[in-house]
UniProtKB/TrEMBL annotation:
InterPro entries, A to Z: Acyl_CoA_acyltransferase, GNAT_dom
Database matches in Gene3D superfamilies: 3.40.630.30
Keyword Mitochondrion carried by entry: no
Alphabetized Pfam families for the sequence: Acetyltransf_1
GO MF annotation terms: acyltransferase activity, transferring groups other than amino-acyl groups
CDD domains linked to this entry: NAT_SF
Taxonomic superkingdom: Bacteria
Keyword Mitochondrion: no
Domain N-acetyltransferase stretches: 1-141
Protein name as catalogued: GCN5 family acetyltransferase
Keywords annotated in UniProt: Transferase
Length: 162
């Protein structure tokens, strides 16, 4: 398995991975909408034997510090529980930190995302339509966030997910 940045030639395969992984087209459309709006900062794919089997996207957010949203993360069902999602996320975190971002927010299962250092407690002071136990944040560039309160806004495309 390799993890690399997406290329223009990967877009159709990424769309298929998103649709199959989620069993619907909403997340694939989210990826397309984030790209069109210019809110997609970077995207990684997991490739196994020449086939794209996983994808992760990091997008622009409004926050009191330079922050990204991690979403969606998709892996084809037959490749789950084999480390593909973890490798995509870890490489995405490393890329984000190297690029100077100060935090990553995700909305998801705390039991899964805790292993990467994302923390719902650290996100609890932020005002967001997604606030709650599934909103987590990971400080980058140190152990603490520049602030632990304020308003955060995901890119407008996220509102279409409901």
């Amino acid at each position: 398995m390799i993890v690399r940045s997406e290329t223009h030639e990967d877009i159709a395969a990424i769309h298929v991975v998103e649709e199959v992984a989620f069993g619907q087209s909403a997340e694939a459309q989210l990826v397309d909408d984030l790209r069109v709006a210019g809110d997609a900062i970077f995207s990684l794919v997991a490739v196994d034997d020449g086939t794209i089997v996983g994808h992760v996207l990091f997008s622009r957010m409004k926050a009191p510090f330079p922050a990204l949203a991690l979403a969606p993360v998709a892996v084809l069902p037959e490749y789950r529980r084999k480390g593909f999602a973890s490798r995509l996320i870890r490489q995405g975190i490393a890329h984000s930190e190297a690029a100077g971002w100060r935090g990553i927010f995700v909305l998801g299962d705390p039991a899964f995302y805790r292993r990467f250092g994302l923390d719902a407690g650290k996100a609890s002071g932020f005002i967001s339509p997604y606030a709650g136990p599934h909103l987590m944040v990971l400080p980058l560039g140190g152990n603490e966030l520049l602030t632990d309160t304020g308003v955060i806004e995901h890119a407008p495309a996220f509102a279409k997910l409901g």
